[in-house]
């Protein structure tokens, strides 16, 4: 009986040590992910501002030419202020939320050995170098893709825009023909 209790106590203690080790690994992984977590928060904060900026760009075209620049700068300043206030707020909230949400997912989906491998990768010089060069590589790829796909997609996009304008009962935009004729006249 004593041996059974002793064995049960040893098993419970080893499981507790195992769980603690796994929790520590998860904490380190979440900490290593801080730049990515902050970037997600930044993107979430900037998304509505970008959408408003796009909508404002269309609305600005309806204003008299002499009011466009001043109004555009005012809207831009308001959007910048929003982003400047929203980014730190969301970043702080994301960092508080990450351990419970991401940490729980890491604990559930990965074994202790996998967490060790993941942490080793995240802390490796190769990963750090990759994180530094990835944005440049992705940007170059995106530019090349846009350049090659534009001739294929532009006619389809223009047709879609015309169809949507027609569905809405809007006339063709006069501003679209004016800028294209000005550069050719110069």
Automatic annotation (TrEMBL):
Residues 165-186 are annotated as: Disordered. The keyword S-adenosyl-L-methionine does not apply. InterPro entries: DUF2059 (IPR018637). Coiled coil: none annotated. Residues 106-151 form the DUF2059 domain. Residues 177-186 have a biased composition (Low complexity). Keywords: Signal. The keyword Protein transport does not apply. Residues 1-19 form the signal peptide. This is DUF2059 domain-containing protein. It comes from Aquincola agrisoli.
């Amino acid at each position: 009986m004593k041996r059974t209790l002793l064995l049960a106590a040893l098993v419970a203690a080893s499981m507790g040590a195992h769980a603690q080790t796994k929790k520590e690994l998860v904490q380190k992984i979440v900490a290593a992910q801080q730049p990515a977590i902050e970037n997600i928060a930044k993107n979430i904060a900037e998304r509505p501002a970008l959408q408003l900026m796009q909508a404002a760009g269309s609305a600005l075209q309806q204003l008299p030419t002499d009011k466009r620049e001043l109004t555009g700068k005012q809207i831009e300043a308001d959007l910048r202020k929003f982003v400047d206030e929203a980014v730190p707020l969301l970043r702080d909230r994301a960092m508080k939320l990450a351990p419970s949400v991401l940490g729980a997912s890491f604990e559930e989906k990965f074994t202790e050995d996998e967490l060790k491998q993941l942490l080793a990768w995240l802390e490796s010089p190769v990963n750090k170098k990759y994180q530094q060069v990835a944005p440049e590589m992705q940007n170059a790829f995106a530019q090349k893709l846009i350049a090659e796909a534009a001739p294929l997609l532009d006619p389809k996009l223009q047709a879609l825009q015309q169809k949507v304008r027609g569905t809405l009962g809007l006339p063709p935009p006069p501003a679209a023909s004016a800028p294209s004729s000005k550069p050719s006249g110069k």
